[in-house]
Amino acid sequence: MQGFLFDEHEQSLPAGKHSASTSTDLRLLFDTAKVCHKCTLAETRQNFVFGEGNPTASLVVIGEAPGAEEDASGRPFVGRSGQLLDKILLAAGFRREEVYICNILKCRPPGNRNPLDNEIKSCMPWLLGQLEIIQPKVILMMGKVAANTILNNTLSLGSMRGKLIKWKGYDCFITYHPAALLRNPNWKRGCWEDIQVMMRHYATISGRELYTEKRENQ
Question: The whole model's pTM is what?
Answer without folding.
Answer: 0.89
